[in-house]
Write a structure and sequence with these properties.
The complex is a heterodimer of chains A (449) and B (244).
Chain A: H1 2-15, H2 20-73, H3 81-93, E1 102-105, E2 111-115, E3 125-131, E4 137-143, H4 150-158, H5 161-198, H6 206-209, H7 214-264, H8 269-293, E5 302-305, H9 306-320, E6 326-329, E7 335-338, H10 340-356, E8 364-370, E9 374-381, H11 413-423, E10 427-431, E11 438-445
Parallel strand pairs in A: 6-8
Antiparallel strand pairs in A: 1-2, 1-4, 3-4, 5-7, 8-9, 9-11, 10-11
Helix pairs in contact in A: 2-3, 2-5, 5-7, 7-8, 9-10, 10-11
Chain B: E1 6-11, H1 15-27, E2 30-35, H2 38-47, E3 53-57, H3 65-73, E4 80-85, H4 89-97, E5 102-106, H5 110-128, E6 139-142, E7 145-148, E8 153-156, E9 159-160, H6 165-176, E10 181-183, H7 184-192, H8 202-216, E11 223-226, E12 230-233
Parallel strand pairs in B: 1-2, 1-3, 3-4, 4-5
Antiparallel strand pairs in B: 6-7, 7-8, 8-9, 10-12, 11-12
The chains are: A alpha+beta (449), B alpha/beta (244).
Chain lengths: 449, 244
């Protein structure tokens, strides 16, 4: 049973009944079928009930006329007149079931014939008048006709070929309608996805813009928005680039001026401060540029050798942090399709952090693992570690562990790494192992979707 | 060392920076000439060959530093130090591949610039054979490559192999210590006269250029990369197994 429901769920998933296509299709189809059935119902009930009433009235009048005729023909005692008349009419009509409930009265308001009429309520009565052969009028009361059994008639009619035709025609029309709504939506979707991936405005399909309906309005609005966004994003990139360049020029002059002072008064501690702050500003500009560079488009992913990238970063760390021992266990098969520059930045920041928070002698362990669809890189240090609550905040730009502002970083490193990993549709996980330190896991899919 | 001052040509479009730097470098004992456009620098360098080291900014309007490097390198072997915007890794590598002798990120501490200029000059002095610390002349021969440290020429199958001074130093170091792995730190120190820095790919680019030039002469896979460590020149007996 469980297996069956699981199967059903997976079929539901695969066919995608949540899709707009199916929703529109099914709603439209069902409603068109309902409308058709209702119309059929109204038409049939109207025609057939009119038909039935007419026939019923005819039957009542004919039967009443016959009874009156017979009554006038054979004048019998009033005691069993009604029974005799009933017997006669039963014989005459050949079947008892066809006797209609009615009451006939003569001009003196004397009942002459009565069949199953006692229980008929006054509001269910119909009144006719019948002229007998002798020229006398008789009052005839009968029961109002009951609604005909149209459901059976309906089913009968709908089983016809016509209904099958209607069924399929409405399905076809619904599918076409559904498709005509969802197709441009899909085209719009792929347009915006391409823009997001390539950071270049792709051409919008002309057929979308020339439809002339609300969807083409939407398409042109989206195109307008994308163009605006693109212009704003490029302007921002340009601004960042210009600002960083403009900041660096005075920074370079400042450094030379400081060095000139230093030449005249060596070992000036203020000049040393200026130098170290210049260096810090320069690093900050660099990191902001790195961060913004990750937004920029990369035309297509290239094969990246994870082992080579790790080695390059570890080499750099050996220069920057000569006292921190690094243990590297590579999986030489680890290779992904990705963006080498971004990966290098991510690894540099994560391994750099691990080394930065390790004092001399604390081992930094790096392992890579080639898995069927992804590559796992683990960077583990034995430094002070991070509080559980702080872990998610660490990924915010300019946030530093312990909210300390004095460390020699800017809190951009992990943001840069995270951005680079997201560019690969990968994951970054942090955990604090029981024996202290911090473990960072990078999961990089082999193919960027 | 020469008796007269070493002459530095400083090329940067920032005139204030040029004035400040030239004041600093003069104080350090150099003779400094400044130019602010790529065109003027190219003309000046091609006109007279009296400059000891060129300090060339890459980011200049009009003719960029790389353009200057390209047009000067074709005719002159003057040592060139590129100033690159920090982080423009591609520019650095392209500059080295086009024959720059070294690079320095900008902005930089001017003392670092002065040290780099001195390192380049020392190297050039040595290569001209009139340096103070003259090394004994060694003739080395391996894989059909012949080095003469006296005339500082390299011959491959008796055809001269054109090498920049950094490339010659690197090849000479690898050949004299063939069979041994030399770390990138040591190579940078010995070849470029300066310590290895983080993200320093100067040595890798020089090695790659040597490999290209040897490969053009039909000599392949004699310099092995030892990943994470450095480089090694294979001896003739050593079969080359896995050169990656």
């Amino acid at each position: 049973m469980q297996k069956f429901s699981a199967l059903l769920a997976s079929a539901y998933q695969k066919l995608g009944f949540k899709r707009l296509f199916w929703r529109i299709f099914i709603c439209f189809w069902l409603s068109s079928l309902l409308v058709m059935i209702a119309t059929g119902f109204v038409i049939i009930s109207k025609y057939s009930s009119e038909d039935y009433t007419k026939r019923y009235n005819n039957d009542v009048l004919t039967q009443a006329e016959r009874i009156v005729w017979r009554y006038e023909q054979s004048v019998t005692s009033a005691t069993n007149r009604s029974i005799k008349l009933k017997n006669w009419i039963t014989k005459r009509e050949n079947r008892r079931g066809h006797l209609l409930p009615m009451l006939i009265k003569d001009e003196t308001n004397q009942g002459i014939y009565q069949y199953r009429f006692n229980k008929v309520k006054p509001n269910e009565r119909l009144e006719y008048s019948v002229l007998g052969p002798s020229g006398r009028f008789y009052q005839v009361f009968s029961k109002k006709p009951q609604a005909p059994r149209i459901y059976t008639q309906l089913m009968y009619r709908f089983q016809s070929l016509q209904f099958v035709f209607i069924f399929f025609a409405s399905a076809l029309v619904s599918a076409l309608l559904s498709w005509s709504i969802t197709r441009p939506l899909n085209a719009l979707g792929s347009f915006s996805r391409r823009y997001a991936n390539e950071q270049e405005v792709p051409p919008l399909p002309r057929t979308l813009l020339t439809r002339g309906d609300e969807l083409s309005d939407l398409a042109s609005d989206i195109e307008f928005m994308v163009n605006k966004t693109h212009a704003a994003a490029s302007a921002q990139q340009q601004l960042l680039h210009d600002v960083s360049h403009e900041l660096r020029a005075p920074l370079a002059r400042l450094q030379v001026s400081a060095a000139l002072i230093e030449q005249k008064t060596p070992d000036n501690r203020h000049v040393k401060q200026i130098h170290s702050d210049c260096l810090r500003i320069d690093q900050l500009i660099q990191q902001i540029l790195d961060y913004s560079k990750l937004e920029q488009s990369n035309p297509s992913p290239e094969p990246c050798d994870i082992d080579a990238l790790c080695n390059q970063v570890i080499d750099n760390m050996a220069v920057t942090y000569p006292a921190v021992p690094v243990e590297y266990r590579p999986d030489s098969k680890a290779q992904i399709m990705g963006f080498a520059e971004a990966l290098l930045q991510a690894l540099d920041n994560i391994i750099g952090n691990a080394c930065k928070y390790s004092s001399s002698g604390d081992l930094v362990q790096i392992t890579t693992l080639d898995r069927p669809t992804s590559v796992l890189i683990t960077v583990r240090d034995h430094g002070p570690g991070v509080d559980e609550q702080e872990m998610s905040k660490l990924l915010q730009p300019f946030y530093r562990a312990g909210n300390k502002m004095h460390t020699n970083g800017f809190g951009l490193g992990l943001s840069i790494a995270l951005k680079a990993i997201h560019k690969h549709k990968g994951e970054l996980r942090m955990s604090t192992p029981d024996d202290g330190g911090l473990s960072v896991e990078l999961i990089l899919p082999k193919v960027v979707i | 060392m020469k008796n007269e001052k070493y002459k530095i040509l400083l090329v940067d479009d920032d005139e204030t920076l040029c004035a400040l730097l030239s004041e600093f470098l003069q104080e350090e004992g150099f003779d400094v000439e400044t130019l602010h456009t790529g065109d003027a620098a190219t003309q000046r360098l091609l006109q007279r060959d009296d400059i000891d080291t060129v300090v060339l900014d890459i980011m200049m309007p009009g003719m960029s530093g790389l353009d200057v490097l390209r047009s000067v390198r074709a005719k002159r072997q003057v040592p060139i130090l590129m100033l690159t915007g920090r982080g423009d890794d591609i520019d650095r590598i392209v500059g080295l591949e086009m024959g720059a002798d070294d690079y320095l990120g900008k902005p930089c501490n001017p003392r670092e610039l002065s040290a780099r200029i001195k390192a380049i000059i020392r190297r050039t002095e040595n290569s001209l054979g009139n340096g103070v610390e003259t090394k004994p002349i060694v003739h080395t021969q391996l894989h059909g490559i012949k080095l003469d440290t006296g005339t500082r020429t390299a011959l491959v199958n008796n055809n001269p192999l054109p090498l920049t001074s950094a490339e010659f130093n690197a090849l000479s170091l690898l050949m004299t210590r063939a069979g041994q792995t030399i770390t990138k730190q040591d190579m940078t120190q010995e070849v470029l006269n300066r310590p290895l820095e983080a993200y320093d790919r100067a040595m890798d680019v020089h090695i790659s250029r040597i490999r290209q030039k040897l490969s053009a002469e039909g000599i392949n896979d004699v310099i092995k990369s030892i990943r994470g460590v450095g480089y090694q020149m294979l001896t003739e007996q050593q079969p080359n197994q896995d050169d990656n």
